[in-house]
Amino acid sequence: MSAQIISGTEIAARIREELTAKVTGLKRDHGLTPGLATVLVGDDPASHMYVGMKNKAAAKMGIHSRQITLAADTSQDELLGVVAGLNADPDIHGILVQFPLPDHLDEARVTEATSPDKDVDGLGPMNAGRLMTGSGEFFAPCTPAAVIEMLVRSGHDPAGRHVVVLGRSNLVGQPLANLLLRKAPGGNATVTVCHSRTPDLAAVARTAEILVVAIGRPEMITAAMVAPGAVVIDVGTHRVDDPASEKGYRVCGDVRFDEVKEVAAAISPSPGGVGPMTITMLLSNTVASAARSAGS
Amino acid sequence: MSAQIISGTEIAARIREELTAKVTGLKRDHGLTPGLATVLVGDDPASHMYVGMKNKAAAKMGIHSRQITLAADTSQDELLGVVAGLNADPDIHGILVQFPLPDHLDEARVTEATSPDKDVDGLGPMNAGRLMTGSGEFFAPCTPAAVIEMLVRSGHDPAGRHVVVLGRSNLVGQPLANLLLRKAPGGNATVTVCHSRTPDLAAVARTAEILVVAIGRPEMITAAMVAPGAVVIDVGTHRVDDPASEKGYRVCGDVRFDEVKEVAAAISPSPGGVGPMTITMLLSNTVASAARSAGS
Fold it and tell me: What structural domains and CATH numbers belong to chain B?
């Protein structure tokens, strides 16, 4: 029997419908249009593509989006000035500065300079800290939030289950562990975090009822590393050479999808899994930010 | 063969000697005396005792300590005013507001109002966030930092080992997990966090090479829950009734010390374990804060 496919594309479409209804409600009840500002520095084609996707998705659900494109030689002070202006702008509820920035710019300083109330990527220290200290409202970082939404909406609530997270990055593995441990919906899991320094990664992975893979290596996870009946979420996205394909490459995840789907009870593909969900979580945070500012 | 005893009292004494030398160096080289302000609201005898212990330990190593005692009916605004004054005071490098506060005061607001550069308890969201996002300098929260110091200084570096943390609190379990996962000294562990909602806590505890118990229940951990040869750190401190004792009570931890020391390779007692280390970590953060302000 083949696994249930946890489609990020389908779940994202459902959430986007819900968000569109919320945006309509904010406009109707509060005369408020959620606003997202995207800031792009330089000419990196991938960054241009990502920002374009975010703005398009925002516009589609009625979010006002403003793209600010700055030259590659923009100074640190100029960029911080742009962020300060957006922090103060009442029409803007979410600010996204697209990374990576050119080498002469300090990403950590830009993240810290973004108002925590508009840091809809959830990457700044104040939002991370509120998540960890359990104090006050916060924006969850988009990729970990996407993983949890996918689990809950596909019928695999992590509460009371053993979740193994492969990868301990500050962007994914660690905040995901904190979210999974919260006394809150989507939380209450028992969580193990492994990484490249874990002596027997395969043995630990096989103890997972839910396995989240964010290890950053193409198709590293084989069927032998997954317990029969486990639920697998693949956070990785890679381009690998593929002479057989017309483009010369194909896109894959951290998991060998074809073989793992034969042992897992449920699995998210990549592409079509966490990727489309991540942008959706950004828009969800933007709508939540606007709702907060409307006091609703 | 009985276990190695990891004495918090002894390790704390060693660290306090090192800190005393650092304080002497700051005075000699920078004309700077580290300053710790403790703020106590109301008449809780336990709080008075804790603050007294902290001030005494600070004074003993040459730290200038200033105790501010406020009436139990102090208003939120008055208290925030005191904190703002200490934030601005160049003679003060660490601020400790002793919790619990009287019910009419908001602890989270007080923590957020404390300057991150003087939040030597490491409990504020900015320090927690910097720990999690890996951006910039931070003060590690004292109890988790104490656990790591005890492991490293007793010869049980967590790198590459499987650490099971029992307890997921925002003060201990979660920040400890983040510290253990860092690519930094005292980190690089594989970490599992369990809690009251974990279905078979004993089975998970038995998978630990290093078991850190912060579950908050007196003597809950039996020998049967510990793998032979494991290292056990007991974070709990409880007073339990004991008619056989002169005082009518005795102090114990979360671990049944007498039976677990027969299976463990090493174990910290309670009392005499994490407790004396926690105050030491507070003083260590205060000295580090002063050193930062001196640019050294």
Answer: 30-115 (3.40.50.10860), 142-275 (3.40.50.720)
